[in-house]
Sequence to fold (413 residues):
Amino acid sequence: MRILVVEDSQVVSRVMRHLLTQELNCDVDVAPDLASAKILLAENDYFVAVTDLNLPDAQEGEIVKLVLAKQIPCIVLTGSWDPQERSRLLQLGIVDYVLKENRFSYEYTAKLVRRLQRNQSVKVLVADDSMVSRKFIRSLLEQHLFQVIEADDGIAALDTLKENPDIKLLITDYNMPRLDGFGLIIKVREQFSREELAIIGLSSDSDESLSARFIKNGANDFLQKPFVHEEFHCRVLNTLDALDMMAKLWEQANLDYLTNVFNRRYFFNLYEEKLPTITRNQGTLSLGLMDIDFFKKVNDGYGHDVGDEVLVEFAKRLKHSFSQHFTVARFGGEEFVVGFKGLSVEKSFALLDRFRMQMESTPVMTTKGELTITVSIGVTNFNHDENVDGMLQRADVALYEAKEGGRNLVSIA
Fold:
């Protein structure tokens, strides 16, 4: 990714280059004037341009028109606040108008560019019965590179969410036919938690209680129409930043820090929650508890860094083999588990034994060369009068039997 900074101040351009490189690990080109910018724009493709308005050879903001003409998102970084100029530039379609006041202004700009990069993969659903309003909101969102989908009422929005469960943000008006904004939010929250989908309510109604009612019904935020561009963008970006933060916190709580598979805590919580349903429906559950053979020799002989490489590759292979339909978790050290909901112990044995053979026949590439890694596995099925801990204890006994039998084996409890 390449970014263009057009700025005649060497201090500002150095600060922006440093912050952008730090935030995005990208290539940053700097142009001190319009003439230099024209050359760079002709030679390179840019993801975004951060431009000053007043350049030595272009005092009237000509650089903005040049950047926008090439359909490059443009962030204006200016030393003077001019309300009329700001309004004109926003109408032209710039991403944002940022005043050079202090270091926070530059940090905000770098984070905004980072957000633009992430926005390319974010789907936003706009539900509003007014075509004019939908198109206006769509244009604002597309300036920030979101993927935008439209719905003309609450029922259509529900259908769209069903077809696109990866939508991350719903922006909904209050007054709509068939199903209004409140009804839509209530139905959406029956299917999607705040961690999965963010919602911003909109209304031109003068009722002062609307904002509280929207939020109490499950919206993350509320915006009164008409609104200014910057307020809309700030609300959207803050809402998505909060969603990203919740996702990060969830990952820290539920994923293993090294291998990125689920951790012990997640596995226990998931299956303790599922067991009553499995018991009630007379369903099937089996699990495989596994240990990498002689892993201590890897750490002692090659170092813990190589040991970590082995663990990461082992987890990667487990995920490739099982995570699409089943649950893979690291319990600690070199011990992993796979939960097979819906499979008998015989079927899970067959899958795990095939994985064991693949592991043995395909060496692991490390910085110290190829290592042949084998695994011992204990498999057990669910008895309807026990808990997850009971299953794991029986699987552990089977794992011990596999090790006693010479390792590189799968043993059924």
